[in-house]
Specification:
With 262 residues, the chain is α/β, with parallel strands linked by helices. The protein has six helices and nine strands. The structure holds 6-phosphogluconic acid.
């Protein structure tokens, strides 16, 4: 796990989304120049979805070889296929369906978490199926693919993916994916990558905006434990980034974001 996250603060949520999009395109282009294929883990939430829309609108997206990008999700809301509240549906609308329609992204590169109408009746069944698909693409000896970049939104309580403060999923050490019940953020049933799966990624980027995230951003960056503040466990093997707007960074002491705050 990488040590100290790098904090980058942008003027507002709009600029943040544009900057995340530019950074994502560049990261995928760099990975593809080295290895050809890239594994990208998407997030639900406002900034994450806005960033995908910004990728869709960017002429630089043509620099990516989408046929060699495998797309995953860090978590999913356990709802039927096509439900507008599914993270998959929102990402498809923002970016993925357009890329597929243009013939750039093969539909089979989109690895959605199995929906409530296809996975049987429980989030656990969906989690098991998703874990099996991840394992199919894993490197030898691992249970998930070598994620090149893993995006995470962050809730005002410090949750990332569908890992909520104090929930049993945070203690999971073996499985890569778990079913989640009683989520405080609707809907109550969800499916989530676990911390070990998240922390196996080469790069983990937390994207957050708004004053309601300011307190928890500070806690996540100042030594809190991941059971109390899951975002404190948002660390990649190589690099961890907190990509923020000024509002969410407003309670950070200047030593945590020395150059970006105005
Ligand atoms: O399915 C979800 O709801 C998430 O993936 C969740 O972890 C989200 O990313 C955060 O709650 C931030 O969401 P906002 O950016 O909308 O606050």
């Amino acid at each position: 796990m990488s040590a100290t996250p790098v904090v980058i603060v942008h003027r507002d949520a709009e600029v943040l989304a544009q900057a995340v999009a530019a950074r994502l395109i560049t990261r995928v282009v760099d990975v593809q120049a080295l290895r050809g294929a890239a594994h990208v883990v998407l997030t639900g939430g406002t900034v994450g979805t806005k960033a995908l829309a910004a990728v869709a609108a960017s002429p630089a997206r043509a620099a990516v070889d989408w046929s060699r990008v495998q797309l995953w999700w860090g978590d999913e809301r356990f709802l039927p296929t096509g439900d507008p509240e599914r993270n998959e549906t929102q990402a498809r609308e923002a970016l993925l369906d357009g890329l597929v329609a243009e013939g750039l992204l093969p539909a089979e590169n989109i690895h959605a978490v199995p929906a409530a109408d296809t996975a049987g009746f429980t989030p656990e069944e969906s989690a098991e199926q998703y874990a099996a698909t991840l394992a199919d693409f894993a490197r030898e000896g691992a249970d998930v693919p070598a994620f090149d970049v893993l995006l995470l939104g962050m809730g005002p309580d410090g949750h990332i993916a569908s890992l909520f403060p104090g929930h049993p999923a945070l203690y999971e050490e073996k499985r890569s994916v778990v079913g989640v019940h009683n989520s405080p953020k609707p809907p109550p049933l969800r499916v989530s990558l676990t911390l070990p799966a998240i922390q196996s990624a080469a790069e983990v980027w937390v994207v957050a905006a708004g004053t309601e995230k300011a307190k928890v951003t500070h806690l996540a960056l100042s030594g809190a434990g991941p059971v109390q503040i899951p975002a404190a466990g948002a660390r990649g093997r190589g690099r961890s980034l907190f990509l923020l707007d000024r509002a969410s960074a407003s309670e950070l002491p200047s030593e945590l974001a020395p150059y970006s705050l105005s």
